[in-house]
Amino acid sequence: MNLQEKTLREGTACVNESEQKHPWWYNLKYLLLGIWFGVIIVKAELVSWFRIQEMFRFESFHMYGVIGSAVIIGIISVLIIKKFNLKTIYGESIKISPKEFRKGQIFGGFIFGLGWAMTGACPGPLFANFGYGYTVIIVSILSAVLGTFVYGKYKDYLPN
């Protein structure tokens, strides 16, 4: 059974690329893209502890400008996808379902921001920090993994 038949049979909108079989070197493009992205965020000082502290102290517009630009680009991208009914590179429809607001998002955002302010490291560039030579970031990486594990274990008891 090929991928398209499997998709139709299971009634799914799409099949994750991870379910497709490729040679090992096929994923090198993702490694190269990740390295390129890491270089960009390091050069733009987005992994800088000092830049992050400036943001949380409202002393600089640098980080707010980057985050705000990303939000605006995201909004425009979603509007374009919806307006022109764009499809994935495999020809599948892109469906963006409405999101439901829950009080757990407030608690989670607060904890996320608190951790970000305390460590000076957003989870996104943790590995870029490590690659740049800030080996102390291992503490933040292990804390993020532990936090993810604890959330997964106790999510049914949390207000999410």
UniProtKB/TrEMBL annotation:
It comes from the Bacteria. The chain crosses the membrane at residues 30-50, 62-85, 106-126, 132-152. This is YeeE/YedE family protein. InterPro entries: Sulf_transp_TsuA/YedE. It comes from Profundicola chukchiensis. Pfam families: Sulf_transp. Keywords: Membrane, Transmembrane, Transmembrane helix.
